[in-house]
Design a protein that fits this description.
Number of helices: 4
Helix content: 25-40%
Shape: globular
Strand content: under 5%
Distance between the termini: 25 Å
Largest sheet: none
Length: 102
């Protein structure tokens, strides 16, 4: 979380997520429920917000190098691929950091 808390791009108040930005409707009701529709909803709300607002001027500090568009970001996320740089992926419990090419 330190990575996110110390990010200079989050200093503007309009760039911060409120507690109702993504509500409980995107949570799965049961283990039997198909996760894809809710994952898709989260991707278009959360990742689009990160891409277009928060990381607008420094996307390489947030996303791996091969992410060049919002479409690629969402496609990879929906296919359970890591999309975040290793520093950020390391603090997210759902992702395993990938080795970045030098």
């Amino acid at each position: 979380m330190e990575y996110i808390l110390n990010a200079t791009t989050l200093s503007a108040e309009d760039k911060q997520l409120g507690k109702y930005f993504v509500d409980s409707e995107v949570l799965l009701e049961s283990a039997d429920e198909d996760p894809k529709p809710k994952l898709n909803e989260f991707a278009y709300k959360g990742l689009e917000y990160l891409w277009t607002d928060v990381a607008k001027f420094n996307r390489t500090e947030w996303f791996i190098e091969e992410i060049k568009s919002l479409d690629v970001l969402i496609y990879k996320f929906m296919n359970h691929e890591n999309v975040f740089v290793s520093e950020l992926a390391a603090v997210l419990p759902i992702f395993t950091p990938v080795e970045e090419e030098a």
